[in-house]
Specification:
It contains 15 helices and 19 strands. By secondary structure, the chain is α/β, with parallel strands linked by helices. Helix 2 runs antiparallel to helix 3, helix 11 packs across helix 12 and helix 12 packs parallel to helix 13.
């Protein structure tokens, strides 16, 4: 009979969450490196290079891969013969592990979990509670999977109750383009089929915990319906040409996972959940011998890349003018230096409410750029912790008022902009720049100074002023409303179709 001690579970969960904050799974790195080697789209290749460089930097520096250090999901398989030496409930032990991990002084992780989600949305300050799924199984061990799921990819989760005669492939291929690039491809898509509505969603999430093995599956050939679906969807999703960060390219997904479960004769539930370029999960087993120490990967598992974009335009944010930005082209790489303001959801909501009331804003945005970001707290000599972009479409509804009433010149964020924002950008001759989602530590190294200017009470959502040096971005939408996220995938979908015909 196995006895699991309270602190063994707590410490193992805490250590695992710290571990996955800065170590990608090796299978993910190897798959991403393969995608980089075969990628022919210059924009997508640039984005994947940033992801790989960022990942290696995080492994070396033990700092978060992404500023969104996620909401914690835990899967527990508890052996029926396990005994506990504990005074806390299993859920409380897991949450104490989460608390310790996220408040770790040497690598403090961003608190992103809000209580009272339909009301006050107050930050819990320690990222608890986790989402815990527990099953009782035969045996005398405790199997644990911990994952940290970013909000951008989780927001793109989809569910449908299809008719039994409907095509799953058609639904997936119709739905994936509606997810945009806010889930930070290339990544993995998990699909759950069957059961009931909640079971399908759980199957999709569980599938994301499995190893990346699509190339091995293709080589040996599928042996059942689920594997046939995986191969078909992997090829057809990549043929859409969405590409890394939605810029257009050969690789949108590194793998497609499928899990199924018996369902009612009248139903065909299907759930789809993407895992982003900050894929983070770890698996361990407690057997009563003490807490688990995960083995770090070797740095030899990462390709040795440096980031030095050829022909990038250098931009001084302190002197740039509207005449300057009028010459920028969609897909062009820029290196930003100078003073950059920040602000995301909560700050935009507060600012637009103030503008509506004809109140003066605490910060002058005239001819300035705003970066949609909520950074991790700094440690040691850092000016700021990992500070990658957040999903820009959440700010779309605020964009016209901000451009019209503040004189804002441009915005920096992640992924595409919607039609409403693009129209506002075009009408005000502004510009939208895209930073790579999932390259947060790399971006933070370009930030030399940081200070809070306003809305201190919003924490990571306050308005900061960053002083940046050669911060890499790409022109996402130019002053005429031309979007690289529209032109890039169309171009590469056509090219992929041509390559298939030639092949």
């Amino acid at each position: 009979m196995t006895i699991i001690k309270q602190n063994d579970l707590i410490q193992s969960v805490a250590d695992a969450l710290q571990f996955i904050s800065y170590y990608h799974p090796v299978d993910f790195i190897q798959s991403l490196a393969r995608a980089y080697e075969k990628e022919q789209s210059p924009a997508a290749r640039d984005a994947i290079a940033q992801l790989l460089i960022n990942s290696r930097m995080c492994a070396e520096g033990h700092r978060p891969i992404c500023q969104d250090t996620g909401i914690v999901t835990v899967f527990l398989k508890v052996g029926m013969n396990v005994q506990w030496d504990a005074t806390m409930s299993v859920e409380d032990m897991v949450n104490e592990g989460v608390r310790r991990a996220y408040l770790h002084e040497g690598n403090k992780l961003r608190a992103s979990v809000l209580a009272d989600p339909a009301g006050t949305r107050k930050n819990t300050k320690d990222n608890t509670p986790a989402v815990i799924n527990m099953t009782i199984v035969p045996g005398d061990k405790l199997e644990v999977i911990v994952a940290a799921k970013g909000g951008g990819s989780e927001a793109k989760s989809k569910f449908a109750m299809l008719n039994p005669s409907d095509s799953i492939v058609d639904w997936v291929l119709k739905t994936v383009p509606t997810m945009g690039a806010g889930w930070c491809p290339p990544g993995i898509i998990g699909i759950g089929i069957g059961g009931t509505a909640e079971k399908a969603m759980l199957l999709a999430k569980e599938s994301l915990m499995d190893p990346i093995d699509i190339q091995d599956l293709i080589a040996r050939g599928p042996k059942n319906t689920a594997e046939e679906l995986r191969v078909e969807l992997y090829k057809k999703i990549n043929a859409l040409g969405i590409g890394a960060q939605g810029l257009g390219g050969l690789t949108t997904v590194l793998d497609v996972k499928v899990k199924d479960y018996p369902t009612h004769a009248a139903n065909l539930p299907i759930a789809m959940i993407p895992n982003c370029a900050a894929t983070r999960h770890a698996h361990f087993v407690l057997d009563g011998s003490g807490p688990v120490a995960l083995e770090p990967p070797s740095l030899e598992d990462w390709p040795k890349l440096t980031y030095d974009p050829i022909g990038a335009r250098r931009v001084n944010l302190d002197t740039v003018t509207r005449a300057d930005v009028a010459n920028w082209k969609p897909g062009e790489v820029l290196l930003l230096s100078g003073k950059l303001l920040t602000g995301r959801d909560a700050a935009h909501k507060r600012m637009t409410e103030m503008l509506t009331r004809k109140e003066a804003l605490p910060v002058d945005f005239n001819n300035r750029f705003i970066y949609y970001v909520g950074p991790v707290d700094p440690v040691r000599d850092e000016a700021v912790g990992p500070a990658g972009p957040t999903t820009s479409t959440r700010m779309d509804k605020f964009t016209r008022q901000m451009l019209r009433e503040t004189g804002l010149l441009g915005m920096v964020g992640k992924s595409e902009r919607g039609p409403t924002a693009i129209e506002a950008i075009r009408d005000h001759k502004a510009v939208y720049l895209m930073a790579v989602g999932g390259a947060a530590y790399l971006v933070s190294k370009a930030i030399k100074k940081s200070r809070v200017l306003a809305f201190h009470d919003l924490g990571m959502e306050a308005i900061y002023e960053f002083e940046v040096e050669a911060m890499p971005v790409m022109v996402g939408v130019d002053v005429n409303g031309n979007s690289v996220h529209e032109s890039g995938p169309k171009e590469w979908q056509a090219k992929i179709a041509e390559l298939v015909e030639i092949g």
